């Protein structure tokens, strides 16, 4: 089975994440998309994160009606901070019959050369890149690379930060979230 790994803190997961993941599930050769909830991104400050299991619960609620979209807590028990190369090695060992690919926004591809062992990732895995509106140029070494696939997905300029700030300011952010996620956030009083 071909699995696309969509890494993120999902703090919270929003409709932009779902639109992109579902687009890839329906319009690429990937059989499933796993939302890998990251406990700690080495490039982000940890203090703004909700608890790992609260974020996993939101991903579970957001994806439960989509057969091709799955929540994953695979990184919860791996050494932190989490590096993608280590997670990929662990997944290949645990699920040797599956082929794992990465899903990332164009903005992440621009900093991909800074990732730990990025050459090894590219050697062994495909990368599906969805469009983002951004200013910096993609490294020329990645242009036309046979393992990097640019996907014609909708451009979703929606961010978890925008949603968290909106909730904190008392704004109505309900349209930006899957219904089950909104209900959970509201019930738990998150981000207020």
CATH superfamily heading: HUPs
Count of discrete alpha- or pi-helical segments spanning 4 or more residues: 7
What's the number of domains? Answer: 1
Percent of residues in helices comes to 25-40%
What is the CATH domain class? Alpha Beta
Strand and helix order: EHEHEHEHHEEHH
Q: Tell me the structural class.
A: alpha/beta
Q: Tally of extended strands?
A: 6
Tell me which CATH architecture applies here: 3-Layer(aba) Sandwich
Note the main sheet.
Answer: 6 strands, parallel
pLDDT averaged residue by residue = 91
Distance between the amino and carboxyl termini: 41 Å
- In terms of quaternary structure, the protein is single chain
Which percent band covers the strand fraction? 15-25%
Going across the biggest sheet, name each strand in turn. 3-2-1-4-5-6
CATH fold call? Rossmann fold
Keywords: ATP-binding, NAD, Nucleotide-binding, Nucleotidyltransferase, Pyridine nucleotide biosynthesis, Transferase
GO molecular function, one term: nicotinate-nucleotide adenylyltransferase activity
Family: Belongs to the NadD family.
Function: Catalyzes the reversible adenylation of nicotinate mononucleotide (NaMN) to nicotinic acid adenine dinucleotide (NaAD).
Q: How would you explain this protein's 3D organization?
A:
It contains seven helices and six strands, in the order E-H-E-H-E-H-E-H-H-E-E-H-H. It has 192 residues and is α/β, with parallel strands linked by helices. It has a single domain (2-156), classed as Rossmann fold. Strands 3-2-1-4-5-6 form a six-stranded parallel beta sheet, sandwiched between helices. Strand 2 (32-37), helix 2 and strand 3 (69-72) form a beta-alpha-beta unit. The radius of gyration is 16 Å and the shape is globular.
